[in-house]
Amino acid sequence: MQVYSEKQQIITAIAALRAQNQLIGLVPTMGALHQGHLALVERALENNDYVVVSIFVNPTQFDNSTDLEKYPRTLKKDVALLSMLSKDNIIAYAPTVDDVYEGNTVSEKFDFDGLEFEMEGRFRHGHFDGVGTIVKRLFEITTPQNAYFGEKDFQQLLIIKKLVEKHHIPVNIVGCPIYREKTGLAMSSRNTRLKPEYLEASPFIYNTLKTAKKLFGTKSAGKVSEWVEDQFSKQNLLELEYFIIADTETLKPVKRKSKKKAYRAFIAAYADDIRLIDNIALN
Ligand code: PAF
């Protein structure tokens, strides 16, 4: 499997493939690959001739230096996992910070029509400018026709769609379902850092979301939120940062339910110092 660490090399390789009318899919990742990433890559392999998997822990999207420092980096293992899916049709791009940022590791400023100020945007300052900056650069470098993102980061998915629309980037964004552990915990590279007692407690998040979905059938968003907050207060390992029921298009918290709209419930919670997020479609 070809692994590039310099953007000029991968730009040349992709230009040659595009000259032969090959379809390129992109799966952007921060590495520490798990089954959820591999499911995205498999989906991309079905619909493209070549799949570029970028592996890059992007510093500008972290507002917490400890989280950035502790983020797992397992490039050798990642490449071995990808090789098991395909040796010939996957291209890995694992650049250095300098290769991507050319000595100026700062974010561009974006206007995502307000999506950036909801949920994650309120708790992780500058996060979506960092995500927008790296994803836009990856699109420029790898010029994919299709790009794949998981729904675990649902807000990120909407923001990438907005980025593409506003900047007229010719790429089709494909959202893919959340991949879960058998326990229901949404897969995340950060899960490897969970201590056993927190790992054991973590299915509580998805179980709570599932019950919230049932309750939302008959109760108001406010009542469901009160119930969720109460459930979290009754256990002592997971600390709720937010529970929000939001409109799936605008991500604005729902005030009054409308049958014409689609809603999703979102949770962010701390398991010790590890921040976990999850969400569920409600209707
Ligand atoms: O979802 C992620 O892993 C990251 O935010 C992404 C899209 C790879 C950008 O760094």
From TrEMBL:
Listed transmembrane segments: none
Protein name: Pantothenate synthetase
Additional remarks: The reaction proceeds by a bi uni uni bi ping pong mechanism.
Pathways involved: Cofactor biosynthesis; (R)-pantothenate biosynthesis; (R)-pantothenate from (R)-pantoate and beta-alanine: step 1/1
SUPFAM superfamilies linked to this entry: Nucleotidylyl transferase (SSF52374)
Organism in which the protein naturally occurs: Seonamhaeicola aphaedonensis
Binding residues for (R)-pantoate: Q61, Q156
EC number(s) on file: 6.3.2.1
Subcellular location: Cytoplasm
BP GO terms, sorted: pantothenate biosynthetic process
Pfam families: Pantoate_ligase
InterPro entries, per the entry: Cyt_trans-like, Pantoate_ligase, Pantoate_ligase_C, Rossmann-like_a/b/a_fold
Swiss-Prot/TrEMBL catalytic activity: (R)-pantoate + beta-alanine + ATP = (R)-pantothenate + AMP + diphosphate + H(+)
NCBIfam families, per the entry: cyt_tran_rel (TIGR00125), panC (TIGR00018)
Binding site for ATP: 30-37, 150-153, 187-190
Keywords from the named record: ATP-binding, Cytoplasm, Ligase, Nucleotide-binding, Pantothenate biosynthesis
Summary of the function given for this chain in its UniProt record: Catalyzes the condensation of pantoate with beta-alanine in an ATP-dependent reaction via a pantoyl-adenylate intermediate.
Superkingdom assignment: Bacteria
Main enzyme class: ligase
